[in-house]
Structures are given as structure tokens and as C-alpha cells.
User: Fold this.
Amino acid sequence: MAAAGFWAFIGASSLILGAMIALTGRLQGRALRLTIAFGCGALVSAVAYDLFAEAVAVSATGASVAAGFIAGALTYYIGDEIIERMSGGPGDKSGGGLPILLGAVLDGIPESIVLGLSLVGGKGPSIAVLVAIFISNVPESVSASTKMLKGGLPAARVILTWTLVAVASAIAAALGFGLLANAPGDIIAFVDAFAAGAILTLLADDLLPEAHGERDKAVGLLTAAGFAVAAFLSFSA
Assistant:
């Protein structure tokens, strides 16, 4: 359990790194958008090759995959709607970075559980999942942290917020390893698919539109590059 928590914290620690980068104020404008695009590509690869594919592989009927995917997508959608209404009503996507923070929590905790479960049987952590999590967390955190800081949140609170998310991810991985190591495949499939649904909804609703803030064809190229790097790691692991 301790090893699962440790590796999950390593993967989630890039959230703290992203917050520190945001504090420097050096990653803004086009550079930030292209970084987000690269992270989006890595997330799409993680969904396709690590989360959804694994869910389908371990599910007995496929119903758990569909249920988990829909649950993840709806949970993010509803949470995002609530944040919108609290921050300024429909159409206000600022939210002080909270929608992206919500997405980081909703996809990060299930992802950490998946990473922890990759240690079952004495194996090492899934390097592909670990690297995809680490890479994609940075632009998520930079983007959300930048908005939090602009919204007036103190720097210490921003760092603390992401530290708590990283710790929660580590705890989730440890508990997942202890409680789900011998769980039926359909339960594992639900967790995998939940993360996949939340990630895709986050990508379409927040991250990709932000990357295209000022229509830039290089965004597509960097998204493809992020996908290629993460896919290579998945196949070579």
C-alpha cells in the first residue's frame, strides 16, 4: 500500500510543480496554450490506451465501462455547472480555475487508483500511466493556478490546494491497492472508465478551448505530439 501511495504522489507532484511555474509568471500567452495542448494530447492517449482500453479488457459485460464513463462525464459536467453558477452564472468560464481543479481531482484520484493497482502482483508501477499523469498534470495546474492567482487567491493557498490534491491522490492509490487488489474486474473497469469520462469532458469543455484561446494551428501539432509521446510510452512499457 505504501508503494502505491508513493508512486501516486510522484505522479501527482507535478500539480505542485505546475503551481510553482504559475507563480513565476513566466509561462503565459502562447507558451502556456501550447503547453496545455501538449498535455491534452497526453491525456487523450492515457484515456485511449491506458484507461478505456484497460476498462474494456477487465470488464465482463461492458456495462460497467459504459456506467463508469457516463458517471465520470456527468460528475464533471454537473460540478462544472455548479461552479459556473457560483462564479458568475452561465457562460462565465472563469471560475478562478476551479473547473480545471475539479477536473484534476475527478480524473487524478481514479488515475492514482489505477496506478496503484498496476503494482498488484509485485510488479512495478505502470511507467506509461505514471509519465502520462505527470506530463498532463503540469499544464492543468499551470492554467488553473494562473486563474486562481488572478482571482486574488494567495500564492500559499494555491500551493496548499495542489499539495492537498496530491496527498489525496496518494491516499486514494494506497486505499485502492488495499481494497481493490482482488476486486471483480467490473469494479476496476468502472474506476478506469470514470476517470476516462471525466478527462474527456474536461478536455472538451475547458482545456482545449483554452489552448485555442487565440486560434493557433500549432495547438493541433502540439496536441498530436503529446499524444504521440504518451502513446509511445504506453506501447514501450
About this structure: Confidence is low (pLDDT under 50) at residues 90-94. The first helix runs from residue 2 to 24. The two ends are 22 Å apart (CA to CA). Helices lie at 2-24, 29-58, 63-87, 98-117, 127-150, 155-180, 185-211, 218-236.
